[in-house]
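worker-03 picked up job from queue 'complexes'. Input manifest follows; two sequence lines, order preserved.
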Amino acid sequence: MRLLNVARVTPRLWVAAVLLLLPFAPAHAGKTLDQIRQRGQLVCGVSTGVIGFSAVDSQGRWSGLDVDVCRAIAAAVLKDPNKVKYVPVNAEQRFTALQSGEVDLLSRNTTWTLTRDASLGLEFTAITYYDGQGFLVPKKLKLKSAAQLRGAEICVQSGTTTEQNLSDYFKAQGVNIKPVVFENFEASIRAFFSGRCQAYTTDASALAFIRSKEAQKPDDYQILPELISKEPLGPVVRRGDDEWFTIVKWVVFALIDAEEYGVTQGNVQAMKASANPAVRRLLGSTGDSGKPLGLDRNWAARAVAAVGNYGEIFRRNVGAGSPLKLGRGLNALWTQGGLMYAPPIR
Amino acid sequence: MSGRRLRSFALQGAVAVALALLLWLLFHITAANMRERGIHSGFGFLLQPAGFAIGESPLPFDSADSALWALVVGLVNTLRVALPAIVISTVLGTAIGLGRLSPNLLLSGLCKAYVETLRNVPLLLQLLAWYFVVTDLLPDSGAALQIMPHVFLSKSGLAVPWFGDGGAFAGLDLPVRGRFGVTGGAALTPEFLALLGGLSLYTAAYVAETVRAGIQSVPRGQSEAALALGLSRLQGFRLVVLPQALRSIIPPLTNEHLSLSKNVSLAVAIGYPDLVSVADTTLNQTGRAAECIAVIMAVYLLLSLLTAWASAWLERRTGRWAQRP
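worker-03 finished. Artifact:
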């Protein structure tokens, strides 16, 4: 192909290159935890830029909900939340990057599905965000529900579960739609706002951002009330290393438990002296919750001190303290009508 | 058989065996490692339902159809752009190549400007530019422009009457205004039009240079001799220069056609569901990266071999033609 466009072709070449390396990678990669300690660095696969989840600023600093999960794990395992190397991977590359050992952990708004969990040599650890797919439409079409999109052209970005949800939902309704599928996020947005499609679809968390940041007049657009799919997002690890799997899972649980018990970034040191036995176990003042995980007793305290509890992470990156201003919704604690529920630390 | 030939055969045989062994090892170890890591492999997923819809296709497609059928639809979409683009770019490129040789300075200057502009701007940028110019300029699909009875132009593309579902005898399916725009008939989407136009115009610049170089490779004495024999300029060109030029034009022209069919894969950037776009989606639904990339590679290899084979046949034919007394 003449004048290969480097920016576009590189990801596919990259997948091909990593696949070629597969035969030479050792079949037993060894214990992930030992490797991370030896390296002194956690290698985290993140997105190439989803505001609120994982995005890089002009100084090269990563931030977002998925990034904070990496930082919390680095704090628990390496005692320093900054010892993380972020590897941006696109939707096509992500599973190959994890399979081949390029990254220790995939924390990249990835939907937990059966096929992915059971057939790709990967395991989903826990859910850090309950998302769902929605629709953004121009107000001038005067739509009240997604069911009215019969015959509409819908712009969508490829490389996600989005296309299948779209097809499933409208098939169940007996309605025909025409997807217009773009590989690149910017192109898909540009096409929608130029009027090529009557609707744009992706996860609801991203729709809010697109409406407020990408539309020239946000008020000309509305998000339809329906969520047509379940998109549980969370960190993913390679199959076959149960210890590492357990550590990642429990760091996430600790962040959620910390919110439930009122342990915050600010009060974590003071809370070590709390009278509540559950808090004392979480923060290592009573018993040693780190030992079964292969960590020291202060693992959870360090994670919370580094990034705050789940509620603080949510607020800072996607909630009221962020430009996205998303409500907690399903992501509220179970004690407040949401789905965030972590097994107890005992 | 002489000792020398025997040695050469033995050497070639050994290299071929070593190469085959290497390929087998590569395949075998990859498969073993994937198994070891619990990565399912195999091509069985091709027969499972695809699970996604395809925006435009001349063949009937439903998300319940198999992934294999989705890939076939993608391949047909690739060919639907590649074949007309090959014809358009060859005709246009030849005209521009001849124009560059014209003694008319304005004409040759314009043709030169065309070639230099088009081939020095990356194709992807050209495609995006065409696509967004097209979608920005056209009216909203709700307010489609009727340019002829039952022919509508809008952001959804060019809607024209086409045969109904029952085939050619069921009569024409006429486009009419619907809920969100024009429904019925056949639609040439902006994605298709931008890709077809962009690829044709871009490749034409290269074809023009190939044609110009081929004609200039025929020594000047040949056309002078033709004039001396009493042939007119046109006759001399057609009977003396062109047959000789074609022999040096056809091999590089094949390269242009090959590049063009591979460049169709840039379709993913502007939302046209070609083979690569469909395979990418399949890869993401199933996670079978190795298999999907193998399928793309095999199909492109096959396409390229077919094109090269057709061109070799053409070369032999024109070779005979040039040798004819």
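worker-03 released lock.
The longest strand of chain A covers residues 133-138.
The longest helix of chain A spans residues 242-260.
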